[in-house]
């Protein structure tokens, strides 16, 4: 991966990179990246909501009784071990897994813009259902609709950004999607810090319902977004595709790039079944990358922090307010570190960032697991001093930073840019589905794993990261 891949489908890149970066492209990509903001908000909001007592009282009353054992003392490792509660978090990603397969065909046949519109509509519907939920069934259906939105948006947006961006800044502009994800997580953490103090059970409703705001922006914006030249070509309109390419490049001199896109499109049209085609020997590298990058990305354990930050901080001994503000701090670190990746990805290449970020995550996870094991032991009987909590928070922030400038954005960038047009929708769908499957597993089972494996859970994450780093060498 040294130096990075670019989806230019061209041997003339140096000739058509001269087109300027137009405001048209930047605005279109910002609107498209709203899908990442929604995805991030959904990732970050569930942990805070599931730690709100009014939310638990209404939908999971057994959970409150379960949080204390027979002697009335909370067990630190098992406070939130409830499969129905974790299903609230994980059901979204199970729906996204299945939606991504449908999204692949729609993205290829009807364009990236249509998939983003469907995703925005599903997001909006799910957010409204969650915000006005009066039953557990209504709550879960809302989460499932949010999952459909995730499946469609995560399928379409990375492709859209890759195809709209000029090659010389494709890496940085494509990472606007990951930056939007981190901003969504940060926004969710801030909302979770504010809303628990609201009266009359409004807090959790506001936390869940505010997802409707970026959903509306994406839905309305998708109607005005231009389609990518690649997608227009796929549907047979060469003249319109050329005009769009001239518009987004800010120059009439696009012949070389347009010829390359036409050649790639003709090759893509000869493929009747992209899913069968991606399994061919010549596409084996793309198949491997689109499968194993999201696989290892999730097994680094990052979504344990993103999903359950408030829950996790309370489990390891932070107070209620301290756990929420700590989640905000990690969210801010996530955003700032993603900016580092945007700056460096086209300068230093993908492979170096993968390796350095993986090593950073290994060291910090080992340290976190060791400190928790030392302070709480196997039985979860112990406490943290103020110094201990500051050290743990610092280590977790370093871990989040390592992910945010390496495996986080690159996990979406590389699979979206290495696939030629004829297998691009299938490759991205594979990337999304593998990502969502393992996100679902982590969301559903980590709290149970923490309860039974104790501090060893963090060492297990270290092992997965180590395997990941080994594969990159």
Radius of gyration based on Cα positions: 22 Å
Low-pLDDT windows of residues: 1-18, 70-74, 461-473
CATH topological fold name: Growth Hormone, Chain: A
Mean pLDDT: 77
By secondary-structure content and strand pairing, the structural class works out as: mainly alpha
Number of helical stretches of at least 4 residues: 24
The CATH homology group name? MFS general substrate transporter like domains
User: Percent of residues in helical segments?
Assistant: over 70%
Transmembrane segments: 21-41, 84-102, 114-134, 140-161, 173-194, 206-225, 287-311, 323-345, 352-372, 392-414, 434-455
Family: Belongs to the major facilitator superfamily. Sugar transporter (TC 2.A.1.1) family.
Protein name: Major facilitator superfamily (MFS) profile domain-containing protein
Membrane topology: Multi-pass membrane protein
Could you characterize what this model shows?
The protein has 473 residues and is an all-alpha fold. It has a single domain (13-472), classed as Up-down Bundle (Growth Hormone, Chain: A). It is built from 24 helices and no strands. The chain has helices at 13-16, 23-32, 34-49, 53-59, 61-66, 83-110, 112-131, 136-164, 170-174, 176-194, 202-209, 212-224, 229-234, 238-249, 255-269, 274-277, 284-299, 302-315, 320-348, 350-376, 386-404, 407-418, 421-453, 456-472. Helix 10 (176-194) runs antiparallel to helix 11 (202-209) and helix 17 (284-299) packs antiparallel against helix 22 (407-418). The longest helix is centred in the C-terminal third of the chain and has 33 residues, at 421-453. The N and C termini lie close together (10 Å). Mean pLDDT is 77; it is low at 1-18, 70-74 and 461-473.
């Amino acid at each position: 991966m040294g130096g990075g891949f670019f989806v230019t489908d061209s041997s003339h890149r140096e000739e058509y990179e001269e087109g300027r970066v137009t405001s048209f492209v930047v605005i279109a990509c910002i609107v498209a990246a709203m899908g990442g903001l929604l995805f991030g908000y959904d990732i970050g909001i569930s942990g805070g909501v599931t730690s709100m007592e009014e939310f638990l009282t209404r939908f999971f009353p057994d959970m409150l009784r379960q949080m204390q054992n027979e002697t009335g003392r909370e067990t630190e490792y098992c406070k939130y071990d409830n499969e129905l509660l974790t299903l609230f978090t994980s059901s979204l990603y199970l729906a996204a897994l299945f939606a991504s397969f449908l999204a692949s065909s729609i993205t290829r046949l009807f364009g990236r813009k249509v998939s983003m519109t469907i995703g925005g509509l599903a997001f909006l519907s799910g957010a409204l259902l969650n915000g006005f939920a009066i039953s557990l069934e209504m709550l879960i259906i809302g989460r499932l609709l949010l999952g459909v939105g995730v499946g469609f948006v995560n399928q379409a947006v990375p492709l859209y950004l890759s195809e709209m961006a000029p090659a010389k800044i494709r890496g940085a502009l494509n990472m606007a999607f990951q930056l939007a994800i981190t901003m969504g997580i940060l926004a969710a953490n801030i909302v979770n810090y504010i809303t628990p103090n609201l009266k009359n059970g409004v807090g959790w409703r506001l936390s869940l319902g505010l997802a409707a705001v970026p959903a509306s922006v994406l839905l309305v914006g998708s109607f005005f977004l231009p389609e990518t030249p690649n997608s227009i070509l796929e549907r047979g309109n060469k003249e319109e595709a050329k005009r769009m390419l001239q518009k987004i490049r800010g120059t009439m001199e696009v012949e070389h790039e347009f010829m390359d896109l036409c050649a790639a499109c003709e090759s893509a049209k000869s493929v009747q079944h992209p899913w069968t085609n991606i399994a061919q020997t010549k596409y084996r590298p793309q198949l491997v990358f689109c499968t194993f990058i999201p696989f290892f990305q999730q097994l680094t354990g990052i979504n344990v922090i993103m999903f359950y930050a408030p829950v996790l901080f309370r489990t390891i001994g932070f107070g209620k307010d301290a756990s929420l503000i700590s989640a905000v701090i990690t969210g801010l670190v996530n955003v700032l570190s993603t900016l580092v990746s945007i700056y460096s990805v086209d300068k230093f290449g993908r492979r170096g960032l993968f390796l350095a970020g993986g090593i950073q995550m290994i060291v910090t996870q080992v340290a976190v697991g060791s400190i928790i094991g030392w302070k709480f032991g196997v039985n979860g009987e112990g406490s943290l001093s103020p110094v201990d909590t500051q050290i743990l928070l610092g280590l977790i922030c370093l871990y989040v930073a390592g992910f945010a400038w390496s495996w986080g954005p690159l996990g979406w960038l590389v699979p979206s840019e290495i696939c030629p047009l004829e297998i691009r929708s299938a490759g991205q769908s594979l990337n999304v589905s593998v990502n969502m499957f393992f996100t679902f597993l982590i969301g559903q089972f980590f709290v149970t794993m923490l309860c039974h494996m104790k501090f060893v859970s963090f060492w297990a994450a270290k092992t997965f990261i180590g395997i990941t780093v080994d594969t990159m060498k």
